[in-house]
Amino acid sequence: MDRQTFEAELKRDGYDIGTNTTAGAKVNAEHSHPFDVRAMVLEGALTLTSEGRTTTYRAGETFAMARGCLHSESYGPEGAVTLFGRKN
After folding, report:
1. How confident is the model over 23-62, as pLDDT tens digits?
2. Which CATH superfamily is domain 3-87 in?
3. What is the secondary structure of 43-86 as a DSSP string?
4. Cα–Cα dist 60/43, whole Å
5. Domain ranges of the chain
6. Spatial CA neighbour of 44 closest among 82, 71, 5
7. Burial, 12: exposed, middle or buried (Cβ in 10 Å; 0-12, 13-18, 19+)?
8. Of 67, 61, 76, 79, which is closest to residue 34 (Cα–Cα)?
9. CA proximity to 19, closest of 48, 42, 45
10. pTM
């Protein structure tokens, strides 16, 4: 999926849209969000761990998480730029 199509779907489905830039290696310990998330990695890579499963998402790949989903995030040395949608 391309960025334009992904953004159009987020808007259609009522998500607030933003971008997040993480420069360099970083780990966010296990946490959750009080909103649903849909995201697309634009640059770099993002690894999510949830319910004992670890998945790495690279540029052009998308993922979704329901509000309250416990997860941790990690970024490699190249960091990542992520386009995301949040919906309460």
Report:
1. 999 999 999 999 999 999 999 999 999 999 999 999 999 9
2. Jelly Rolls (2.60.120.10)
3. EEEEEEEETTEEEEEETT-EEEE-TT--EEEEEEEEEEEEEEEE
4. 8
5. 3-87
6. 82
7. exposed
8. 67
9. 42
10. 0.94
